[in-house]
Design a protein that fits this description.
CATH topology: TIM Barrel
GO molecular function: hydrolase activity, acting on carbon-nitrogen (but not peptide) bonds; metal ion binding
Pfam families: Polysacc_deac_1
Helix content: 25-40%
Largest sheet: 7 strands, parallel
CATH class: Alpha Beta
Shape: globular
CATH architecture: Alpha-Beta Barrel
Strand content: 15-25%
Order of helices and strands: HEEEEHEHHEHEHEEHEHEEH
Number of domains: 1
Number of helices: 9
Function: Is involved in generating a small heat-stable compound (Nod), an acylated oligomer of N-acetylglucosamine, that stimulates mitosis in various plant protoplasts.
Number of strands: 12
Distance between the termini: 51 Å
Family: Belongs to the polysaccharide deacetylase family.
Protein name: Chitooligosaccharide deacetylase
Structural class: alpha/beta
Length: about 290
């Protein structure tokens, strides 16, 4: 009897075929994945979206995904991710840490020039905003937006103006009422995600790829969280994009839109996975 290959074996094969080195034009596959459509996301009056944290999702069809990356830019890994996206003609949203943007402005400008959306992931990525006072929470967000704008040569832009989308993602998805209210008053949307590879945990790229594909197969669609500062993710992304192509997924790119957002409510019985993780982490840290 012939044994079917495991998903991890398939992932290892995809990684080998895609190659782990940086991409360049001559190495790109002729049948590019591409960006299937643009999704304008309005944030008037605020927005809270992403099923891991909030009971609302972006309006995606079956097998449609939105790619988002957190924590960059980082010179050792972000260029490899950008190379892979460019090879496949794919656009993504990068939630940047402000101090990283200030340290690597050329990478921020490259993201903009290659059509990606730029968003805020606070100034310094505190372990949780919930340990800060209200003024310090707001300062983390304001300073994060300002650093990205400055990297783009727009030092006078207010949060969410100019080349930076009015999109915010909290470290660890741990939002706060004060910052949510501040963001809503300024028409800034708050983003969680629908699925993740857990790539903040060290793992082999082929295992990460197989895990990501399994979770995506189960979810069927959604906004995906990855981290462009992780070497294992940078090594995985080319194969992941090829797998999306081969398995019939379509990439949707979100950009700032006008008016209020259109969202899809969560299914009955929804609960926040994020809050469970935060509570569990707090208990471990308290021991």
């Amino acid at each position: 009897m012939t044994r079917l290959p495991t998903r991890r074996a398939v992932a290892a094969g995809l990684l080998a075929a895609a190659g782990a080195g940086p991409a360049w034009a001559g190495a790109c596959a002729p049948d590019r994945l591409g960006t299937a459509r643009i999704l304008p996301v309005g944030t008037r009056g605020g927005l809270q979206v992403g099923l891991k944290t909030y009971p609302a999702a972006l309006p995606l069809g079956p097998k449609e995904v939105v790619l988002t990356f957190d924590d960059g830019p980082a010179p050792g890994t972000t260029p490899r991710v950008l190379d892979a996206l460019a090879c496949e003609g794919v656009r993504a949203t990068f939630f940047l840490i402000g101090r990283n943007a200030a340290a690597h402005p050329a990478l921020v400008r490259r993201m903009r020039d290659e059509g990606h959306s730029l968003a805020c992931h606070t100034w310094s990525h505190p372990w949780t905003m919930r340990d800060l006072g209200e003024a310090a929470q707001i300062q983390q967000v304001e300073r994060g937006f300002a650093a990205i704008s400055a990297a783009l040569g727009e030092p006078d832009a207010r949060p969410g103006q100019g080349g930076v989308a009015p999109f915010l993602r909290y470290p660890g998805f741990a939002d706060t009422p004060a910052t949510n209210a501040w963001a809503a008053e300024r028409d800034i949307g708050v983003f969680g995600c629908d699925l993740w590879a857990s790539d903040w945990v060290r793992m082999a790229p082929d295992f990460q790829l197989s895990r990501m594909l399994e979770r995506l197969a189960h979810a069927g669609r959604g906004m995906i969280l990855l981290h462009d500062i992780q070497p294992q993710t940078a090594a995985m992304v080319p194969a992941f994009l090829r797998a999306l192509k081969s398995e019939g997924y379509a990439v949707v790119h979100m950009e700032r839109g006008s008016g209020a957002a259109v969202t899809v409510p969560a299914r009955a019985g929804w609960s926040s996975e994020t809050e469970k993780i935060i509570a569990s982490t707090r208990r471990r840290r308290a021991v």
